[in-house]
Design a protein that fits this description.
It is built from eleven helices and 28 strands. By secondary structure, the chain is of the alpha+beta class.
């Protein structure tokens, strides 16, 4: 009598599957593509056969002679890097960033003085100082690129090549708004030079940074392009390439190369809690740098078109309050007095959707589009106004620092009015001891929709749903009209700290 054995269900299923496969093979039906049932829904996995470089020596040996150290003798103690074109201190620059901005705490410049001074230390102004940065030749006759913040306040410029040879240089021109500068070495020597890349780098692409960190000169680091199109709050034309090649103070103005030895960007800033490298750096794209540098070479300055509007982003709730099908464009908070925009009839509440047919996605795109035009150019601006598109022809001016002029008019006193659903108590300017147009926020509920939109006591409401308001009753009339029009949100034009912006508040009035 044979001993009987129990067979588990799992083994039984495996045996049946194997028997089926054998049967298919015997029948000539089994092919190389035959797969088990659990794999039937899976597609082929991604496979990349491009080989990574074994080293970067071939790139470094070719481009290194074009990279130099830049020493700048300055008439006063050099300031920290400041992209906005002003003379504010480093601390004041951070105070100007929006609350919660990720770079408010960690963004640091690294133009530096060879690492000899910590960023948070202050010294009394001196008669002169020496600043160090990096640069690179873009022609064999001695034109070289660096950052504006490297040469700022400079009186004498010295360029040092990788062999330690020193050359005197002169400043051809500089542009604060993009943090770029052009120097020129006049000598009988022919210099090795590099070119800007014609195509933007791809995220994940290798990059090599060469420069003068901490005054060490000729230092090479490598990494990848980790992001593009970064806006770090440095200026109106932010479009930085983010790289993770280690760069430090003194790398400012140096190049970031691709594997063809082309310059993809000019190193300008780092993200760091201490002033040293933590793996995130930012470079001005080659496309921006090349255009600016060519203008500096030709004219010594950069001339930009000027529209003359204060603009802000269109959020979903603002789009809803305006009747736009989606959040896009840049809404005009204010047209500056005597500006090209005001002369052409642009007004607060207009949403700029396109310029000469080029779509405007947001304020940053609008700034760059307008800046690319020459002064006195006529441009066709498409706006969303009163629920429909309109075209406005504007003759651009020349970009300059605007002067703000406020109209002052007396205001009659009126009692306070409470808007409980919005969490606001309003009063007139006269009652608040102020002059001019608008209605003052006297009180605000910290748990209200208005508080969530960062409205504050003392802010002045200038318009509600496109209607100018000078009394709390004007605000109520505008809200009632918006409610009759079926708006789910209503747009407030608000002035705070001498800046004007739009705020969309939900409609939930009794």
């Amino acid at each position: 009598m044979q001993n009987s054995r129990s067979v588990s269900p799992l083994r039984s299923r495996r045996a049946k599957l194997l028997a089926g496969v054998v049967a298919l093979g015997a029948a000539g039906l089994l092919t190389a593509q035959t797969i088990v049932p659990s794999q039937l829904a899976l597609a082929d996995a991604v496979r990349v056969d491009t080989a990574a470089p074994l080293d970067f020596s071939h790139v470094v040996s070719a481009v290194s002679p074009a990279v130099v150290s830049v020493q700048v003798k300055q008439a006063a103690e050099p300031r920290m890097m400041n992209f906005d074109g002003g003379n504010d201190s480093f601390e004041d620059f951070f105070k100007g960033l929006p609350d919660g901005h990720p770079f408010q705490r960690f963004f640091r410049d690294f133009g530096g003085k060879g690492g000899e001074q910590q960023q948070n230390q202050r010294r009394a102004p001196r008669q002169y100082g020496i600043s160090q940065g990096s640069g690179f030749f873009i022609s064999d006759d001695g034109y070289l690129v660096t950052n504006h913040h490297v040469i700022e306040n400079g009186t004498e410029f010295t360029v040092i090549d990788r062999d330690g040879k020193e050359y005197d240089a002169k400043l051809i021109g500089a542009d604060k708004r993009t943090d770029l500068a052009l120097l020129k070495v006049d000598s009988g020597d022919k210099f090795t030079y590099v070119e800007f890349a014609k195509e933007a780098p791809q995220v994940g692409e290798w990059t090599v940074a060469i420069g003068n960190p901490f005054g060490l000169g000729g230092s090479v680091t490598a990494g990848i392009v980790s992001a593009r199109g970064r806006d770090i709050g440095a200026g109106p034309y932010d479009d930085f390439i983010q790289i993770d090649a280690p760069v430090n103070r003194g790398n400012s103005g140096g190049p970031a190369f691709n594997m063809h030895g082309e310059v993809i960007g000019v190193n300008a800033a780092i993200f760091s809690p201490s002033g040293g490298n933590v793996g995130i750096a930012f470079a001005i794209p080659a496309s921006t740098a090349q255009d600016v540098i060519m203008e500096l070479k030709d004219d010594g300055t950069v001339v930009r078109g000027w529209l003359g509007v204060q603009i802000q982003n269109v959020t979903d709730d603002i789009a809803e309050s305006l009747g736009l099908d989606e959040a896009r464009g840049a809404i005009v908070a204010e047209a500056q007095e005597n500006s090209p925009a005001q002369k052409a009839g642009l007004r607060s509440g207009d949403t700029i959707l396109a310029v000469d047919g080029t779509e405007v996605k947001g304020p940053r795109e609008l700034s760059k589009i307008i800046a690319a035009y020459e002064p006195d150019s006529n441009v066709d601006i498409t706006v969303w106004r009163d629920g429909q598109k309109e075209d406005v022809i504007v003759t651009l001016g020349r970009l300059q620092e605007p002067d703000r002029v406020a109209a002052v008019q007396p205001e009659a006193a009126e009692s306070k009015t409470s808007l409980d659903d919005l969490g606001l108590v309003l009063t007139t300017k006269a009652e608040a001891g102020m002059e001019g147009d608008g209605v003052v926020i006297a009180e605000i509920d910290p748990d209200s929709p208005a508080a969530e939109k960062r409205l504050n006591t003392g802010d002045v409401i200038l318009e509600v749903a496109g209607m100018k308001v000078n009394s709390p009753s004007d605000v109520l009339k505008a809200l009632e009209k918006a409610e009759k029009d079926g708006r789910k949100a209503v747009l407030f034009r608000v002035e705070s700290n001498n800046n004007t912006r739009f705020v969309a508040l939900p409609m939930n009035l009794a």
